[in-house]
Design a protein that fits this description.
Protein name: Flavohemoprotein
Bound molecules: flavin-adenine dinucleotide
Pfam families: FAD_binding_8, Ferric_reduct, NAD_binding_1
Strand order of the largest sheet: 4-3-6-1-2-5
GO molecular function, one term: 2 iron, 2 sulfur cluster binding
Largest sheet: 6 strands, antiparallel
Helix content: 40-55%
Shape: elongated
Membrane topology: Multi-pass membrane protein
Number of domains: 3
Keywords: 2Fe-2S, FAD, Flavoprotein, Iron, Iron-sulfur, Membrane, Metal-binding, Oxidoreductase, Transmembrane, Transmembrane helix
Order of helices and strands: HHHHHHHEEEEEHEEHEHEEHEHE
Distance between the termini: 29 Å
Length: 441
């Protein structure tokens, strides 16, 4: 399995590099315009590579399951953020180098009306990119609503790519050759096609495969479980620990769906799925008002966070609402009659906010399951673990062959960072821990 994942990672990485480098090398084939100085040619190469990387961002976020599976969606989004900074850096370096060498191409004409279109599109493209990055990096400080930010992110990316291509074609230097121009214009159409795929074709598919809410359950910790049943189709099969994108009160064409882990057993034969949602913002606070019978749309399953080898001890570490994928794993293993050893370390602020605690106690009879509750704000008289889940808690509750267990972590970012550090100190190999981050952006 691991070898298969490694191979898939290697193949997709090569394809990614090919998509960026091949069009660049294609520019050097065939008839070439007379060479200019090195700095100019170098800056142009940076511009072309930056644009190719920007275009491929549409592929990274197009939710192609086969591409994202070997890494997990959170890793792909992390890469998307990092690589876009690099791409924007390359694109911005292009005019900066030309300014630094006082390139004659940057000489301003006497009248604004005489500024060539190629140059105007360059300003539009770079301006959109800079705005896009500022809004992505400082969305919270700018107090932008997620939905509004998401929409503007897509629009700005589209403007940046289209204007960048018009700049290249308008300037004409390398793209005078019709073959090369066709290649680059074709590639731009392909990038925009990726966006259409996720925003148009996928929603069309979802529209034909709706779900109906059959039950709304209030849970501990200001949390609600939605039970959803496929309507007129068989639904999809998911692996315990995976997640889907939920659209409520809107058609699947709405730009922003919300990601939630499946909390139910993956063994439900009738396609039923459950999501357990904590009130943490404007969308999630309204989930409790959902009524049975309501139509919803689900896009899934996604993610690489799922149970591992049956003979290994599985250590599930959940913080707050990070319990949902663990619950799916536990319920699934119970339904399968699987007796692998399981330890759940479940951290929360209060005892009262521990979602699923009664069911976890009941499930102990069907599984080889030990549950350790860790409260950061314990009630008086609490005799269990308190504080944070850390290396000491591991040492107190796990058999000492720490490096041989498989660890599954889901919770707030600070907790996940601390646990990953603790596991590193305990010499647990990286391949033994698996995580799902609830913050894509
Ligand atoms: C893979 C994954 C699985 C998740 N599983 C669960 C779960 O099982 N139960 C649960 O309660 N929560 C889960 N979450 C978190 C949940 O998606 C967010 O809490 C929810 O989308 C917040 O929306 P809001 O409008 O209520 O809050 P807001 O206040 O609008 O947003 C709070 C923060 O959540 C993030 N966010 C908001 N909307 C989205 C979106 N559409 N897509 C991605 N991130 C967004 C942003 O960082 C935002 O700053 C999961 C998140 C991810 C990434």
């Amino acid at each position: 399995m691991q070898y298969r994942d490694l191979m898939r990672k290697a193949i997709w990485s090569v394809i990614y590099l090919l998509f960026i480098l091949a069009p660049l090398f294609a520019l050097l084939a065939g008839n070439l315009p007379p060479a200019r100085n090195f700095a100019t040619e170098f800056s142009v190469a940076l511009g072309y590579s930056g644009l190719a990387m920007m275009g491929l961002q549409f592929g990274l976020t197009a939710r192609f399951r086969h591409v994202t599976e070997p890494w997990g969606e959170d890793v792909i989004y992390h890469f998307h953020r990092r690589i876009s900074l690099m791409a924007v850096g390359l694109v911005v370096a292009h005019p900066l180098i030309l300014i630094a060498i006082r390139s004659p191409q940057l000489a301003l004409p006497d009248s604004v009306r005489d500024i060539p279109w190629g140059a105007r599109f360059a300003v539009l493209s770079i301006g959109s990119l800079i705005l896009l990055v500022v809004m992505a990096l400082w969305r919270k400080q700018l107090k932008l609503r997620y939905e509004l930010w998401h929409l503007s992110h897509i629009v700005l990316a589209l403007i940046a790519i289209a204007a960048g291509m018009l700049h290249m074609v308008g300037w004409g230097f390398y793209l005078v050759d019709p073959l090369k121009r066709t290649l680059w214009v074709g590639m731009t159409i392909f990038w925009i096609g990726l966006l259409l795929y996720v925003r148009l074709f996928k929603p069309l598919f979802m529209l034909r495969r709706p779900y109906r809410v059959t039950e709304v359950r209030a849970e501990h910790g200001d949390t609600t479980t939605l039970v959803m049943q496929p309507e007129g189709h068989a639904g999809f099969r998911f692996k315990p620990g995976q997640f889907g994108w939920l659209t409520l009160w809107a058609s699947p064409f709405r730009i922003t769906g919300h990601p939630f882990s499946f909390s139910s057993s993956a063994e439900a034969a009738d396609g039923r799925v459950e999501m357990t949602i904590r009130n943490l913002g404007d969308f999630t606070s309204a989930v409790r008002t959902v009524t049975a019978g309501q139509r919803v749309y689900l896009d899934g399953p996604y993610g690489a966070f799922t149970i591992g080898h049956p003979t290994d001890m599985h250590v599930l570490i959940a913080g707050g609402i990070g319990i949902t994928p663990m619950m799916s794993m536990i319920r699934t293993l119970a339904d399968r009659g699987d007796r692998r050893p399981l330890v759940l370390l479940y951290g929360s602020k209060h005892w009262e906010s521990m979602t699923f605690r009664e069911e976890l106690e009941a499930l102990k009879t069907r599984l080889d399951l030990k549950v350790v509750y860790v409260l950061s704000d314990p009630p008086e008289g609490w005799s269990g673990e308190s504080g944070r889940i850390n290396a000491e808690v591991f040492r107190r509750h796990l058999p000492p062959e720490y490096a041989e267990h498989e660890y599954f972590i889901c919770g707030p970012d600070v907790m996940m960072d601390a646990i990953e550090t603790a596991l590193g100190e305990m010499k647990v190999p990286l391949a033994r821990y698996h995580s799902e981050r609830y913050s894509f952006v």
